[in-house]
Design brief:
CATH architecture of the largest domain: Alpha-Beta Barrel
Strand content: 15-25%
Structural class: alpha/beta
Mean pLDDT: 97
Largest sheet: 9 strands, mixed
Length: 426
């Protein structure tokens, strides 16, 4: 469908600067083909009135576990180990693939309604996230969580086979791409990690993992390998492959050097880290070192939402306080983390409102108190917005929500199934 968005304020940015201007946006065959002016042969099939609206690149959630939306608002106010091993994992054992599908559908519902157009998922149930993304209209990068001792471990072999089965099944869907996801150094043995690295190189596929999330993880790595988790993975050749490393809360000086030199993409999860008492990632120092930071929500079990506006707000604020520096992380740096930096981390042609980029956009209604007066729109996106302003969402040139009505998701059906499953896993 050819779409023209008329007379809309739009955030147009690159890695170094941005402009907010009133313009027209032209979309054809899923691509932004014009800003201000269209191709001579452009014929609009759909016109969207942009009066009192703001167009932004769709937000990109670079680390989540969509099926875990079913665990929202349970096992709260617990220490990390008790939360994960005594409460979350036992509930995961009660889920079946259909349950995971509805958990992922609940996640997609929330993400679309708050302006997220793409997400990087680490899951446990083959094909369920992919099926959900396709049905909801979302763009997704999907990774089957991998754990096991070595390449001969039956469970480890089954999981990696599931990952490649999934890749093969969905390889022709242009909105889906895939990564391999060794869960963490404490759930994967050295031989298994080496095997995954080998497969990633063989198939030219990126890696996604949890890294340096807790002090305990770091202390155990030092005890077992005489290295930090970052140094350990580097010694195995892990970062020779494009990597999205979630968390990176507890880093030491040499870790920063490795992350920078190996072009590791760090997915911050500030609300999850605070909620579980794991601390604050050293974002100010990452920015100083030139490390590519992107933004994730983690799961609804530890956040407790998948609303990236909340994580943007948190990122913009907490590091000012932690560093006692009001200029530590500014609003534009946070916006980039949620858009263009995420696209870079996931190797996607999106994250910007720019000719030639995929048409992944969120349109916000500016007729709300948190955006008035319109003094500084970029500041408002990080400090004032809460996600309720999102009115229309376009992904790959297709309208997936219009005037707050989801086009491909039956919300009542999603909520009904989520409540049914919640009763089963109590």
């Amino acid at each position: 469908m050819n779409i023209k968005i008329e007379n809309i304020l739009a955030v147009v940015n690159d890695e170094n600067d941005y402009e907010i201007k009133e313009t027209d946006i032209f979309i054809k065959d899923g691509i932004i083909t014009g800003i201000g002016e269209s191709e001579n042969d452009f014929i609009s099939e759909k016109i969207i009135d942009g009066k009192d609206k703001l167009a932004i690149p769709g937000l990109i959630n670079c680390h989540t576990h969509t099926y875990m939306s079913l665990f929202r608002n349970i096992a709260d106010d617990l220490a990390f180990d008790e939360w994960l091993f005594k409460n979350i994992m036992p509930r995961e054992d009660k889920l079946n693939p259909e349950d995971a599908y509805w958990g992922a559908m609940l996640a997609c519902t929330e993400m679309i309604k708050t302006g997220t157009t793409c997400f990087l998922d680490m899951h446990m149930f083959k094909n369920q996230t992919a099926e959900t993304a396709v049905k909801s209209g979302m763009r997704a990068v999907i990774s089957r969580g991998l754990s096991g001792e070595d390449r001969n471990d039956d469970g480890a072999v089954r999981r990696i086979n599931e990952a490649f089965d999934e890749i093969e099944r969905w390889k022709d869907n242009k909105r889906l791409s895939f990564m391999l996801a060794p869960h963490a150094i404490y759930t994967c043995g050295t031989d298994y990690i080496k095997f995954i690295i080998k497969k990633a190189k063989e198939y030219d596929i990126s890696l996604h993992t949890h890294l340096s999330e807790t002090r305990y993880e770091v202390s155990e790595a030092k005890k077992n390998y005489e290295m930090t988790p970052v140094e350990y993975l580097d010694s195995l050749g892990f970062f020779e492959v494009n990597t999205v490393a979630a968390h990176c809360v507890h880093l030491e000086e040499n870790d920063f050097k490795i992350l920078k030199e190996k072009h590791v993409n760090v997915a911050l999860n500030p609300i999850s880290n605070m909620k579980l008492g794991n601390g604050f990632a050293p974002v100010y120092k990452m920015l100083e070192k030139g490390i590519n930071i992107c933004l994730g929500t983690d799961s609804a079990a530890s956040n407790n939402s998948l609303n990236l506006f909340s994580d943007m707000n948190c990122t913009a604020l907490i590091h000012k306080g932690v560093n006692e520096n009001a200029q530590a992380v500014n609003a534009f740096e946070v916006f980039k983390a949620a858009t263009i930096n995420g696209a870079k981390a996931l190797s996607l042609n999106t994250g910007q409102i720019k000719v030639g980029k995929a048409a992944d956009l969120a349109i916000l209604n500016l007729n709300c108190p948190q955006f008035r007066p319109k003094n500084n729109i970029m500041a408002a996106l990080s400090y004032s917005a809460n996600g309720s302003e999102v009115e229309t969402v376009i992904i790959d040139g297709e309208i997936v929500m219009e005037n707050k009505k989801l086009c491909f998701i039956d919300e009542e059906e999603v909520y009904r199934n989520a409540e049914r499953i919640a009763e089963k896993i109590k």
